[in-house]
Amino acid sequence: xxxxxxxxxxxxIMDVLSGMVITSIIIGMVFSMFTVINQQLYSYTNTRAExxxxxxxxxxxxxxxxxxxxxxxxxxxxLFFERSGSKIHIFQSDLDxxxxxxxxxxxxxxxxxxxxxxxSIEQSDKSTVDGVHLEVLVNKVKLTCDFYRxxxxxxxxxKAILDGx
Length: 165
Prior knowledge:
Blueprint: H1 13-65, E1 73-75, E2 78-83, E3 86-93, E4 96-100, E5 105-109, E6 112-119, E7 129-138, E8 141-148, H2 154-163
Antiparallel strand pairs: 1-2, 2-3, 3-4, 4-5, 6-7, 7-8
């Protein structure tokens, strides 16, 4: 009895190795692509969070500056006022803009580039504030805003026009 060679269809070791190399290259490309996308998303999320903080700070300062019932005072570029019976003090410490109240200290922004108060030239009271200038650094971009309080009769005239008087 003679042994017959039976040929079985299969892959050679070279076929298997070349398939593994091609698969590992594709997996490496997909992994690096997901890593880059993840870094971009993280950067966008941080930028958006900083921009939201800036917009909240801007809204808070705008509400404070434009409230006619609040008398704004200043000493050494620090803002003092009273709201709802509590004394509030806003000042800059390094790159932070801080709000100090009777029982808490809040960080309004940690990216302040420049902050100064605009004082009234016409009024005799040098501690009165007419506006605030603010510069905040968000993702290497400087955002600037100015708030000016109305000190003339323009607001009363506009209200009278709107009311039809």
